[in-house]
Amino acid sequence: MFYYRQLILINFFLVYLSASSQHSGHLKPFGSSGPFEQIDKLTNDFPDPILFFENYAFKSHPVLFRQVLANDLYLSLWNKDKKLKKLFLNNKEIVHVETRKKESRKQNILTMTMTDFLKRYQSEELYLVEEVPKLVRPYFTLPKCLQCEPAIETFQVAMLWFSSGNTSSVVHTDDYDNINCVLQGEKQFILIDPHTYKHVASQIIDNPSGSFSSIDVDRVNYDKYSSLDNDIHYYQVNLTRGDCLFIPALWIHQVRSSDRNIAVNYWLNHARVKNAVINQNTCELLKQSNLMTLDTITWPKELSNLEGLQDFMFDLIDEGATSFKDWTREFSKDLNFDLHSNTGIITLFAEFFNMIDTNENGFIAVNELELLLDDNNNMTAAFEILQDIVNLIEIKSGKDVQSNNQNIDEILSGDETEKDDDINLKHEDL
Ligand SMILES: *[C@@H]1O[C@H](CO)[C@@H](O)[C@H](O)[C@H]1NC(C)=O
Ligand SMILES: *[C@@H]1O[C@H](CO)[C@@H](O)[C@H](O)[C@H]1NC(C)=O
Ligand SMILES: *[C@@H]1O[C@H](CO)[C@@H](O)[C@H](O)[C@H]1NC(C)=O
User: Which parts of the sequence belong to the EF-hand domain (predicted)?
Assistant: First the structure.
């Protein structure tokens, strides 16, 4: 009897030992305890597109670009809210703002103007995640490693991330290749190679439809996520103002930020990256004076060909966006233009929508879209309507951009007349 009890105790102890994780990172922040892998690093200037695609993009290999924006003419625009408040003063464009700094995929998303956001973000839990607003697109130069025609073709969208710091994302993967650049503050990235550790992604990305993990990034339970064993190597990459990081599509990653924090990321369409033909013959680097800024890239990329449009529409239905309202919102996003803001344009868009909605119930179903695609004449007609809309929008936005451009020199040169700290900043930055 006595021995039997002792045996049970020993047994309990053994079970306890084997169940409690041996990993030194147990219940600590994601990736914080290593072991670590060294990331490739290039300093002072982006590589040219040929080198970037051959060594990194085609191979899905991450790389850190240190201080590549240090000489960017407009980097100092982001130094102070004062400059941004001036710039956005009468701007009515709406941005989307998350309300949880520790990311939750179930949270309220607010919409507001940049002016409102700038007023509120220091005192409230707000995180702006939005395509770079139209007003500031002239001040973003596409990274030099994308500055030739077939490389630009892979570019999808540039997103702006703006908060007062202390944000943390979930562990997730993206379908896009991503060049993430820090304009203000510090960002910390943790990356795991999904090709070396195939089993890790399949275990930890436990919300496959949203490509994210329910891991608590502040307290990782290594018992629950047993694929994260001692053999898994992490890349820990800290970015500061002027640094950029290339994160290949499907790489597992998690992001934290500290201090007043502004970043831009350039998302590249992974299918187009894989198929891009980038070599001495196809890719002539644009001259410094002709570098593409975000406002000069012809939008929309996705809707400018029939195939892209089809994919876009199927994706919308997949994501549950099927009503007229959903479609106007999503097309507005992709076209960078609020379709409702112009009667002529929204009428055309209604015509486009109704061509697909054959049963006229106000929603578009997969079978309706398939019907349309089966019928060449109807599909061409629908595409032509969309082209008309795009043309109208281009005419309208051409005007907007011109009226903005005068502002910036005033705002940046305004530094000179301001107090000492501003003058120092200007000398250091410009
Ligand atoms: C930063 O965020 C964490 C959650 O990720 C929270 O627990 C902490 O209180 C925040 N710190 C500050 C200073 O707001
Ligand atoms: C990155 O920053 C964090 C937080 O400040 C720090 O603990 C860590 O050691 C840094 N990692 C590297 C590789 O510099
Ligand atoms: C194609 O267009 C014709 C003529 O407008 C219409 O009768 C037909 O229903 C359309 N088919 C589809 C699949 O939309």
Answer: 344-379
